[in-house]
Amino acid sequence: MKSFLDWAKSNLIVAILLILTILAIPAMIYFSGKWNASVRKSVEEEGQKGMRELSSISSTYEVPPVVPGAAAVTVSTPPNKATTEFVRNIRKSLTEQTEAVRGKAIESNQRGKSVLFQDEPAADRVFPAPVSKSAELRIAKAMVKRWPAEHEALLEKFHVGQPPSPESLAGELQRMRDRERNAIIEGRVEQTLTAEERETISEALQHARTQRYRDNASRFTVYGNMSMFEAVGDPSDGPLPTVETMWDWQHMLWIHSDILQAVLTANTDSRGTWTPVFQAPVKRILSIQIDPRDYVGGGSSSGALPGRDDGMGGPGGQGASAPLGQDYAAAHTGRAGWPGATNPVYDVRDVTVELIVASDRVPDLLDAIARTNFMTVTDLDLEKADAYDALRQGFDYGTDHVVKATVQIETVWIHAWTKEFMPPAVRTALGVPEDPAEPATDPSMPTE
Prior knowledge:
By secondary structure, the chain is of the alpha+beta class. It folds into 3 domains: 2-56; 59-73 and 83-109, no CATH class; 122-159 and 220-315 and 328-430, 2-Layer Sandwich (Alpha-Beta Plaits), CATH 3.30.70. Helix content is 45%, strand content 14%. It has helices spanning 2-10, 12-56, 81-110, 133-157, 166-185, 195-217, 243-266, 362-370, 387-392, 415-418, 424-430, and strands at residues 59-63, 73-77, 160-161, 222-223, 282-289, 293-294, 299-300, 346-358, 375-384, 402-414. Helix 1 (2-10) crosses helix 2 and helix 7 packs across helix 8.
């Protein structure tokens, strides 16, 4: 201790500094703790303030509706990378799915639909417009011949046929009668047939007639002929068709094809093979009725105007992305067609078909219609049919009980593919807007 005091006396300044240093350590610890608490509190307050400010910044993320007119899905939340990326992926996926569905719908609606004269050189095409008046006249003359010929081809394509003509059958039976009679009386003195012999020949002829009907009915799947196409008639009797009329003929040809396709589908078995008419659900097509359209005059050529307005608006009244109006007074689908209603997305054409159908197979017909293109049954009436009277006329319906079905069908046609071929007056009448012009390009700029 004495040595330390001696040292301190001799090194007074150093000793004082040493003592002050030792005494300062507890003070520094005390005050540093106070200062750390203050800093920590300040930092926490700044952090909380920043979080409050960030929370007050809200972004609205929106996923648009898939169906026009439906509500969008919206979420308001502070912006962050994860949410932004999630919503971006959702929107991208919906867009891709919507485009895929749209493409499939157009593909289905267009499948198997060829356009008359479209494979010809440009000078001989009719749609959307002939290149000149002389070309229009030339094509109109050709169309008058081709219009019924195309329907004759439909009968063959869809296995539609008729019973043997009464004249040909009568000739066959007469020749058979003569053969049977000669075989009986050959070599005998008495040339007159007995009542029993006459009855035998009569029974043989009746069997031959029935077998002839059955053999004929095995060659196709449904009875029908050109007269069932009520809109076709004989176009050579009237004036040459205009471009708009030729378009209407083209459209009706597509509808006739779809109706026959639906019948063939109903009459096709599980193996994909069409069944002969005496075994098929649909036995006979009596008529296919479609009102011709007068696009220039503004109504049906038959004078039957639907006279309905579903609020869809007239030509150019709305964009393709706008919600479409619905009229459930027109049909349970809510869709209505020109001239009472138009929209830029699709056209509606109503068809009335009269058929003879096996009564227990009517659902097969309805299912087949629903599976063919965009067709919907909007009304169905059934009434009795006389199969025995039909057989006397050569129509072999087999053993099925049959009824007469009057079916009203709504057909839908998407403008996205038909508009390319529409004459200008038709586009105007249906409210189909002109396609946007291609943007002008600078020839001095390089192209990819």
